[in-house]
Task: structure prediction
Amino acid sequence: MACGFYALLSSVRGEFVSSATAIVIGMVFDALDGRVARLVHGESSFGVEFDSMADFLTFGVAPAHMMYAFILKDYGAWGYPIAFTYALCGGLRLARFNATAHAGTGGKTHFTGLPIPGGAGFLASFVLLYQIIEEGRPAHTWKFLMDQIPSLYGLAPLMVVGLAFLMVSTIPYPAFKQPSLIRPKSLPTISILCAVGFLLFYYPLTVIFLVFLFYTLLGPVSWAARLVGRLFGWTPRPPGDYGEHL
Result:
């Protein structure tokens, strides 16, 4: 929650790099807090509700205001409803998760809809890359990708609305929480992880953006592939449990 509040204040002051960085740091804490609670047996219903409030601020309100102050305000009367739509859908996404969790209908292998941290991470990493270009900051990046980032600036309203739609959709997204993924044993898997780790160390912002881009597109692309498979009578591998799990 502290990261979200700081991100919000930073975007109010026009410090978009600080705002986006705080959102990314908030994602790290969000990934750790639940695991720490389970490790020390400190889980509680109060903690679950408070975590959702923190997520709404950090990954819903803060990114929405950041994008409004950064780009969407230039779209006049359209800027506010576009930014609000993102925050609203983020809140609906969290409310849906809480409802299914309390009902005991949540799944363990997939999310239903894009997780709200995923949308926030995509927007934050985009802002970080764009600001590097605008300010001419020295950074290890891929030239091809950096050449494409400015063109995304004009697509910002579509990006924000698209992410909002994906959050409230029923498109399944893999949770990547299976033990086999956390503790890979095969040599090819270990090699891939080492390569990604090296790239992350050398091209941190570029890799972070591409990871969020890949994950964001993974849901609709997989959904479309399964739809085409059913239309043509293919038999794709069962996607697993598409229930809610955040």
Q: What stands out?
A: Residues 89 and 164 are 5 Å apart (CA to CA). The chain has one domain: 2-231. The beta strands are 110-112, 172-174. Residues 2-231 form a domain with the Four Helix Bundle (Hemerythrin (Met), subunit A) fold (CATH 1.20.120).
